[in-house]
Task: structure prediction
Amino acid sequence: MRISGRTKMCIIIGDPVAHSLSPAMHNAGYKALDIDDQFVFTAATVKNKDLKDAIKGVRAMGVRGLTCTIPHKIRIMKYLDEIDETAKRIGAVNTVVNINGKLKGYNTDWLGVVNPLKKLGKLEGKKAAVIGAGGAAHAMVYGLLKEGVQVTIYNRTVKKALNLIESLKIINGSQVSFVSSMDLSHVEGVADCDIILNATNLGMGEYKSKTPVPKKFIQKHHIVFDAVYAPYETKFLKEAKEKGAKIIHGTEMLLHQGLVQFELYTGKKAPEDVMRKVLHKI
Result:
């Protein structure tokens, strides 16, 4: 890398964030396009209580791009100057671009969900179960509804899921139904769905041994998509594979949302093959 005083900084913030593959993916893209003297991508752990100060730092230091992961995708919105219409509708931001001191929020996560799924066939008319109701779930549900998928949301906290439903209610005429219990006791309903998506942090870090859906409810006809990408193959995906289901690794969501993000930060088309290859090497 050829970092100098003129190099623009891009940062991913979250808690945790040490596992993030975004720096490796974006920096590989910069190098491939010979712009690694113009951009560098790094990471910073930011606690919830420090988010406001972190945004002040982004402004003060002229950070070009800010990527947001768990748990900041919703709370960050109140600290921005402008929010893209799609991100407003989703109710979550994962990408912030600093345009001459003005911070504008976007959401590219929904494309990270829809694009990999569309490679497996038509989505319209399918039924999907989304586990969780945080920022990633907002993007998942939005993308699925745009494609004409009927969505059921399973979440521990009723209020969060109801807020999600209220913000997305009907897109393209698709209805959102809702099932919730503190212990997800109704999660057996996923058996009737075509697609199961995990939008929680179950499967990563201290929850590495956990899975959002018991193996007995996963069927061969399912497509199972996990937003968690570290570890590469979560317990959820391993058990789905054992049941004969088609699986989509979290690295696919990371890649496809990152391709759009890359272009927002640099103004250049992202080198998809290079960025995919680095994710599979790690």
Observations:
- The chain is about 35% helix and 20% strand.
- The longest strand covers residues 8-14.
